[in-house]
Design a protein that fits this description.
This protein is an alpha/beta fold. The chain is built from 4 helices and 7 strands; from the N terminus they run E-E-E-H-E-H-E-H-E-E-H. A hairpin with a 5-residue loop joins strand 2 and strand 3.
């Protein structure tokens, strides 16, 4: 891990943003994240992306509880264009254990959204493998 940024909340939930040695940003969401925390975490990601210009994001919701980020409209209108402009190209989204609460998956399943390639995964290891593959493709190795 090269960099870490944590945004804890009073109830113990949090978003931990790290730059992995493998070259992607990892956003790990834990606990019950309310809408304000979700917006703050997404905004924090954009601030870090502005510094790092990283093309890869692993968004890990596997330890999240309850509904997550009900504003897909905001993500599409604001977050996606900004993140794309700052260099993001690939998003590996790991669903929470209760995938029925992960509303974004029904919207983004296997999609390209605003120029971002988005893939949905059940396991973090699958998401990591896909990001490694994307890096190889970008490097012209595969």
């Amino acid at each position: 891990m090269l960099m870490s940024s944590t945004m804890p909340d009073t109830d113990g939930s949090r978003c931990i943003l790290t730059l992995d040695e493998e070259g992607w940003l990892r956003a790990t969401w834990r606990g019950f994240v309310d809408p304000i925390e979700a917006f703050d975490g997404a905004d924090n990601y954009l601030r870090k992306l502005a510094e790092l210009h990283c093309a890869y994001l692993l968004n890990d919701n596997s330890t999240l509880t309850g509904p997550w980020f009900d504003s897909v409209d905001w993500l599409e209108r604001v977050w996606v264009p900004q993140s794309r402009q700052l260099g993001l190209r690939y998003v590996a989204h790991v669903v929470q254990a209760d995938a029925l609460s992960d509303t974004i998956t029904t919207y983004l399943r296997g999609a390209e959204v605003g120029g971002l390639v988005v893939q949905i995964f059940q396991q973090v290891s699958e998401a990591e493998a896909w990001l490694r593959h994307c890096q190889l493709v970008e490097a012209g190795v595969e």
